[in-house]
Amino acid sequence: MTVGQQRAWDDHWPRLGRTVSELPEGPLDFTEWFGREAPVMLEIGSGMGETTSQLAAAAPELNYVAAEVYDPGLGQLMLRAEKLGVENLRLLHGDAVVLLTEHVEPDTLHGVRLFFPDPWPKKKHHKRRIVSPSFAALVASRLAPGGTFHMATDWENYAEQMLEVCSAEPALRNRYDGWAPRPEWRPVTKFEQRADVEGRVSHDLIFEKRS
């Protein structure tokens, strides 16, 4: 970690962050943690926080939760949030599957965002990709009726896998006929910029929980 990222951990983590493996058993009380009742948006894999900080800042009406395994990334996210004056953001360090399975109540999340997850491009590694039938079912079970599962990737065959997997999940419905239009509100990430330079097209997918 850089000096700045370490300072962010020292200054902000006790208030803003929790470690998934150290959470007490049972559902996490987001209302108590944020100090208010508001719709909860979970972003899985916030990376270095460039997009996450902007999205949280742009939606003060949401209780915005970022789950990430990379310590420097969380430190950088806290620095970015501090610079933008973001107050509606909390961070979770650890496995999002464990978080969803053990610490999020069914039918409660306003939305789940998964932007540019690790593509594991080699075919022999595709089984490591986070979007699988069991993951789609888990996300669907935690969404409130009408809640959204928004994914984006610049890897064509991963986008097709996401579309196939989520279309096969009975609790989810695609909001569009195939790919979603790229939302203007989603900031362009460094991964997306690199993909554009390398000639890869980014795809968005937005599914919602059936009522």
UniProtKB/TrEMBL annotation:
One of its GO terms (molecular function) is tRNA (guanine(46)-N7)-methyltransferase activity. SUPFAM superfamilies: S-adenosyl-L-methionine-dependent methyltransferases. Gene3D superfamilies: Vaccinia Virus protein VP39. It comes from Amycolatopsis plumensis. InterPro entries: SAM-dependent_MTases_sf, tRNA_(Gua-N-7)_MeTrfase_Trmb, tRNA_methyltr_TrmB_bact. Pathway: tRNA modification; N(7)-methylguanine-tRNA biosynthesis. Substrate binds at residues 122, 154, 189-192. Keywords: Methyltransferase, S-adenosyl-L-methionine, Transferase, tRNA processing. The lineage of its organism: Bacteria, Bacillati, Actinomycetota, Actinomycetes, Pseudonocardiales. PANTHER family: 3-DEOXY-D-MANNO-OCTULOSONIC-ACID TRANSFERASE/TRNA GUANINE-N 7 - -METHYLTRANSFERASE, PENTACOTRIPEPTIDE-REPEAT REGION OF PRORP DOMAIN-CONTAINING PROTEIN. S-adenosyl-L-methionine binds at residues 43, 68, 95, 118. This is tRNA (guanine-N(7)-)-methyltransferase. It holds the Pfam family Methyltransf_4. Transmembrane segments: none annotated.
